[in-house]
């Protein structure tokens, strides 16, 4: 690099105040002038303001000499000086400086401005004072200025030389003088040390190149140029002294400074290259003006601006919040000098709000401080957060609120109701017979039905209510700020009305009915757990009573429902704890007095409660779906027991097992039975399955197919509890039954009137006409037995003959049984 032409010119100001003259080379962008010690150019006159004026470098790209200085009254924060600014005898607030301009401050300080071109000798003789006499001992060099303080303006040249010789050993820079004949007349010790070939080359040394070409000028002149001496770089300041016919040369070693500048330029280039490629957006903000002073490509791309467009904007243009709020954040950072990380939005060129995370810190930028904003695009993270939030608080199938969100909304509603003395209603929904739809038409259709149901309810309610999916086909509606219970009833009526039209799904017209349990704050519970529990208890009670209605909570309902809920929880553990067991009751052929078969009866003994009513827990098992696993256990246990009787040679013709409506609807019923028969080695003809009329009514076509398949396997089918349901007599012909059991209610009243025996006789004759075996159950007295014998009933079952027996008891009974009907009453007593 040729440092002789490193700069086209030098900008110099000469300051003059009482008792002092100084010279400054202006190299940086900004210089503050005033009485305060922190100014770049410090003035000592008391009339000068603390921050009186500012030199500001301005770059004009369209001008060949592209750098000029403006002088501004006061500082860059808008603070004006006390006594004002005068340039060329005219008062002004600002002025573009030109060569030779004279600036006056407070009528006591004069500043002269010069532009010195390289290799030229501009005449500055019009100065009021000459600048040829310098106290070189006071020569100072700083990062911003090179200043030579004038100490002896009135001394002769010889006196100056004497002083110069005295101080030469202290001066850290080479000083050389030559006369107009090219002879070296003076060189200080540092010059002799640094300029090794000075004495050998004398005037032919590069230091003196061209200095003797222009000696006709009779006025003092000044020249500054750069000089390369080997690997060292110097700034050469040349002063022509025509009266003394001398040329004085000052050499300032710039080698380290140039190396530092080069290193800084390389570092800056590397920094800019890294910053331009970094994925995060970076912008620098001016502390005072809030103007964007730099930005990288990533930030430009993020907001769809060019760099030039961004540099014309302020931080206020990028943030969609009030300027006062922006300033408050920035002032905190400036005051505390701490980094701040915040999330927010930046406005793109297209007015799109971009989600960003911004780290704001205070950094040094050149000779001043700036705000650095590291901007990270977090749009994808925000999308993920929204998705996670949706997954956390909303049901994925219906889009309704889930349990978590409902609990939060309910807590908030209770807090508000407590303050306003209002009520809160919790409505617990259940779709009647949804499982039947799900099992028969498929889970895919069931899901579509749930979505359609949720949409229809929301449409009828509007968006102001919280409607949540609790799970499965259960939903909860939250009604906050209720002042009258009539509001709850009106809401339910509106929902029921919206469900009158069928749901059309995959070609199926589905009519949906609902059961609703209602609990209200504060009368039915003062916290969310109690309200939800009580509403669920009411719903549970409704389902037990027949569904398709709504009920409000009351204490009696709670007691009954609590018992059922307790039993439900215990039933889940019953199989694991081996609390379920089987009893067996014989069925006797009346003509032969032989045991025709044995019916197994499910029993449950809980360690805390004791014996639990079979109809009660069977209903719970049906509702919860536990009947499937319990039913499979009963079938296998009964088959294993019967197989043992066969091995011992005491087995009757068959063992009868009750099959629930839910079991009959199982898709894998046939496979389960085949597996059980295979595992136990029991012949299908030894198994009789008892089916109630209610199992047939729900889906006659499906039931017929299953029963025909069971008969095809060789299993016997019995119609249980005949006469209690609504099945037509045609069912007896339609379904492949082997046996018909007369319900115990007919036997209980058989002795009360002549009509009752007639009804039983009609049933017996009907069964015989259809070639069905008839069994009367519930025989408890000799009188009942006598009537059935007179009516030619084929078989009987009841406490008169034998109470239900345990496993060991039925074993003993079968082993010791004698075909003597007179033993019936005795057996009942013996096995109680």
In short:
With 832 residues, this protein is α+β, with helices and mostly antiparallel strands. It contains 26 helices and 39 strands. The protein folds into four domains: 1-118, Sandwich (Tumour Suppressor Smad4), CATH 2.60.200.20; 278-381, PAS domain (Beta-Lactamase, 2-Layer Sandwich), CATH 3.30.450; 394-553, Reverse transcriptase/Diguanylate cyclase domain (Alpha-Beta Plaits), CATH 3.30.70.270; 583-602 and 627-830, EAL domain (TIM Barrel).
Number of strands: 39
Termini Cα gap = 120 Å
- Average per-residue pLDDT, rounded, comes to 82
Q: State the low-pLDDT regions, or none.
A: 1-8, 118-169, 820-832
The outline comes out as: rod-shaped
Number of H/I helices:
26
CATH superfamily of the largest domain: EAL domain
CATH architecture name of the largest domain: Alpha-Beta Barrel
CATH class of the largest domain: Alpha Beta
Q: What percentage of residues falls in helices of 4 or more residues?
A: 25-40%
Largest sheet: 8 strands, mixed, barrel
Which structural class matches the secondary elements?
alpha+beta
Beta percentage is 25-35%
């Amino acid at each position: 690099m040729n440092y002789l032409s490193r700069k086209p010119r030098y900008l110099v100001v000469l300051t003059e105040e009482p008792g002092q003259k100084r010279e400054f080379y202006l190299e940086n962008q900004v210089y503050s002038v005033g009485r305060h010690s922190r100014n770049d150019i410090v003035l000592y006159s008391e009339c000068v303001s603390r921050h009186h004026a500012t030199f500001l470098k301005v770059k004009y790209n369209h001008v060949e000499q592209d750098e000029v200085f403006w002088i501004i009254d006061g500082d860059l924060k808008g603070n004006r000086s006390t006594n004002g600014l005068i340039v060329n005898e005219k008062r002004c607030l600002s002025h573009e400086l030109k060569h030779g301009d004279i600036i006056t401050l407070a009528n006591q300080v004069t500043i002269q401005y010069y532009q010195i071109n390289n290799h030229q000798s501009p005449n500055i003789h019009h100065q009021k004072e000459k600048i040829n006499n310098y106290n070189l001992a006071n020569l100072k060099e700083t990062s911003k200025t090179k200043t030579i303080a004038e100490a002896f303006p009135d001394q002769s040249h010889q006196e100056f030389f004497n002083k110069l010789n005295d101080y030469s050993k202290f001066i850290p820079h080479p000083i050389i003088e030559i006369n107009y004949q090219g002879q070296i007349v003076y060189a200080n010790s540092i010059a002799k040390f640094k300029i090794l070939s000075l004495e050998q080359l004398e005037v032919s040394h590069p230091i003196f190149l061209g200095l003797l070409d222009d000696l006709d000028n009779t006025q003092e002149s000044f020249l500054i140029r750069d000089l390369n001496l080997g690997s060292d770089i110097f700034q050469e300041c040349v002063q022509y002294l025509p009266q003394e016919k001398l040329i004085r040369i000052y050499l300032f070693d710039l080698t380290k400074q140039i190396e530092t500048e080069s290193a800084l330029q390389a570092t800056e280039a590397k920094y800019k290259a890294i910053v331009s490629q970094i994925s995060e957006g970076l912008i620098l903000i001016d502390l005072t003006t809030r103007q964007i002073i730099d930005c990288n490509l990533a930030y430009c791309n993020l907001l769809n601006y060019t760099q030039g467009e961004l540099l014309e904007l302020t931080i206020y243009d990028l943030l969609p919040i009030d300027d006062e709020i922006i300033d408050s954040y920035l002032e905190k950072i400036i005051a505390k000098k701490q980094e701040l990380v915040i999330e927010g939005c930046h406005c793109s060129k297209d007015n799109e709000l971009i989600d960003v995370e911004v780290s704001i810190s205070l950094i040094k930028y050149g000779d001043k401080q700036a705000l650095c904003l590291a901007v990270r695009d977090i749009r994808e993270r925000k999308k993920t957060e929204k998705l996670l939030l949706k997954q956390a608080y909303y049901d994925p199938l219906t889009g309704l609120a889930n349990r978590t969100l409902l609990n939060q909304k309910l807590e908030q509603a209770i807090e508000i109701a407590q303050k306003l003395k209002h009520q809160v209603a919790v409505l617990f929904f259940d779709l009647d017979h949804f499982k039947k739809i799900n099992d028969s038409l498929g889970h895919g259709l069931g899901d579509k039905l749930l979505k359609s149901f949720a949409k229809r309810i929301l449409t009828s309610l509007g968006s102001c209510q919280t409607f949540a999916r609790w799970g499965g086909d259960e939903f909860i509606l939250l009604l906050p700020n209720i002042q009258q219970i009539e509001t709850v009833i009106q809401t339910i009526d509106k929902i029921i009305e919206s469900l009158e039209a069928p749901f059309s799904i995959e070609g199926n017209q589905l009519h949906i009915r609902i059961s609703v349990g209602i609990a209200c704050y504060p009368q039915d519970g003062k916290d969310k757990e109690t309200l939800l529990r009580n509403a669920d208890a009411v719903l549970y009670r409704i389902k037990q009573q027949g569904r398709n209605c709504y009920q409000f909570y009351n204490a009696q309902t709670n007691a009954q429902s609590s018992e059922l809920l307790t039993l439900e929880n215990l039933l889940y553990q019953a199989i694991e704890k081996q609390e379920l067991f089987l009893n067996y009751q014989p069925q006797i052929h009346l003509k032969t007095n032989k045991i025709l078969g044995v019916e197994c009866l499910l029993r449950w003994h809980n360690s805390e409660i004791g014996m639990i009513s079979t109809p009660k827990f069977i209903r719970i098992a049906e509702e919860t779906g536990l009947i499937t696993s319990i039913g499979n256990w009963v079938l296998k246990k009964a088959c294993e027991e019967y197989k043992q009787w066969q091995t011992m040679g005491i087995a009757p013709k068959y063992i009868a097992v009750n099959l629930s409506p839910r079991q009959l609807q199982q898709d894998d019923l046939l496979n389960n039975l085949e597996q059980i028969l295979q595992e136990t080695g029991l012949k299908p003809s030894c198994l009789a399955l008892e089916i109630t009329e209610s199992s047939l009514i729900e889906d006659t076509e499906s039931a017929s197919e299953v029963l025909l398949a069971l008969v095809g396997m060789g299993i016997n089918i019995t119609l249980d509890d005949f006469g209690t349901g609504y099945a037509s007599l045609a069912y007896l012909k339609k379904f492949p039954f082997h046996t018909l059991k007369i319900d115990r209610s007919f036997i209980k009243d058989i002795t009360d009137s002549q009509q009752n025996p007639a009804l039983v006789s009609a049933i017996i004759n009907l069964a015989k006409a259809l070639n069905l075996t008839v069994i009367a159950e519930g025989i408890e007295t000799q009188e009942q037995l006598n009537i059935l014998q007179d009516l030619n009933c084929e078989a009987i079952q009841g406490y008169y003959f034998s109470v239900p027996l345990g496993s060991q008891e039925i074993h003993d009974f079968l082993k010791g049984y004698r075909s003597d009907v007179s033993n019936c009453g005795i057996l009942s007593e013996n096995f109680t």
